[in-house]
Amino acid sequence: MSVASLIAAEQLEAERTLKARSAEKKLSTESVPALQKKIQYLSFTVYELEKLKILKAQYLKELDDIMTNWEQNKISRLKPDQAYIDSARDSILYKLTCISSYYNGMLECSYGSSSTWVIRNCKEAVKKAEDALQAFIILAASKKHLSEEEQQHMSFKKKKLQFEINQNIRALARAEKDPIIIKIRNSELPKSEIESIIALETFLRKQERQEQNEQFDIYTHFEKQTIIRKILSISTKIKKCEAEICQRDNIHTLLEHDTISDTIRTKRNEESFEGTVYQKPLLFSKRIHEIYRPESMPISADSPYLSFRTLRGENSTKIVKIWQPKYVECFTDMNYEIQTRINARIVFSAVEFPLFPRWVVDASAGFGDGISFGVTNWIREGLDINNIVNRASDAYNAGLLAGILVPTRRLLWLYEVGREYRLGRNFRLAPVGNRTGDPLGEFPHYHRRVLTKENVTQSVEGQGIGRHRPWESSKHDKSFWDRF
Amino acid sequence: MNKIKLPIFVSEEFHELYMFDLESDMQHKLEAIDVSDNVYKAFDAEGRLLKLETVNEEGIAEKPTEGRFLFGLFKNVEWIINNKNIQVTLAEETPTHVDELKKLIKKFLKSGDIETSELSLPQLIVAYRNFCNQHAE
Predict the structure, then answer these.
(1) Which of A123, A215, A323, A418 could serve as A307's disulfide partner, Cβ 3.0–4.6 Å?
(2) Reported ipTM exceeds the 0.85 cut
(3) Which among B28, B78, B111 has the least Cβ separation from residue A436?
(4) CA angle, corner A397, sides to A391 and A402, nearest 5?
């Protein structure tokens, strides 16, 4: 089934759900806008995907035109070799594949709170990819007209921009190495308060570093974003100059992918390793326990593959870092967003995910939420992985109901039989009371034997084990507190 | 065969004395697990020792249901269900525990500053009832 049809099916499903629920008047006022929003997103996705398809066809046609033109005019001086043409074609195809795959991923992510930023970033990524491709095609088309002087000028400009990029990359590397990431969970805080918190944290960190006599450039989370945006903007500017070299390098890297993967496997037990891996889906622990690259998914398949670097023995926010291969540089911003927004933990190839059928995932999550009275849901929210569960699905709700019934039934049974818990010889607790017929015993109570100081087996007068505390009084009580 | 003469006196480890006018009151008040653990000693109004035991619905002596909490994860924690009835029968035909009962009642009346040295068992019972009623008020 194609991606477009999948999206269309999702959209229809969402519309159908909205209509059905509205008809039954069961839909709360909160969920109506959410569903409408989802429909809107999905409509947008279909539109964007169609647009991409048209673009892809257009680019391919333009490339063919260029090649034909070159063949016809026989301009041997500037004619690119066959390898270059092949590599350029592959590169464009790869970028478009990645875009499609990310849309697939977006489908998976479109539930829950993450959809907004995923879509936003997809839009940006697509726009950048378009720019890059357009730039490349313009370059390819105009290359034959460049004079030597123009080429020199281009070369100089390239060097200048390259220098600027390198500077920023170095700064970013430093920031990556020792970043100051200040997380503020409560988004309802006033802006001024957030700023003051950031300022305070930064100041403390700066002080700490100065004490160590280390000259670090200090970047906050927001500064890092600024740097990356700057790099991206410069990258776009020099696309014309970079295109040729970049494409060749990328193809080269792509071909060497298998070797990199093997290297990872051999290095996986070392302290750190870097390369292209797949994360086993549904492993939401703080570490990647298992990495693998399915043989059934070659590089050229319609699946995005991400590059990870794991740093073992560090905090959860640093355990996994995602690095997009440089030949998909148009996704760098989005990639960075993934890294920061989900604390670099949930690294998944969206189209592979989930391994289990969706209804199994939803039902399991629902059952867990029910049995824990929502604690697991809260944990998923905390880990920012709740987007994988469709809480509007029937499977989830069925699981939730079953999950709620299990402990409820147990509690009712406990209430009915009035179970007591005995801790040692001198203490018993009846959390739901017991059913011996004594009215005081119906309430939650406890029994306690207060022992005399002289004899550890004898109780104080009126302070025996048979008393239903704290409800029952005794003739021997001297104060109210003797009830306890 | 003699019947139990009410009220019934139940002593909890000789540090608490309950008086029940009805057998059913005693069955409701006392918990089966305490009876099973021999915490109580009971007498009738004539000073005869009574036998307390826990029985199932068919009247056969049986202890309350007990078990290990969380499969024995915590060594000292057990769960108990007081799902057994308490049966009271005469342990002796002739009252041989009159003195013991009198001593017990006197002990508790003493805490209320009531003079008890010359009183017989029926008088002591009346005095104890008054003492309990005063306390209840």
Answers:
(1) A323
(2) no
(3) B28
(4) 135
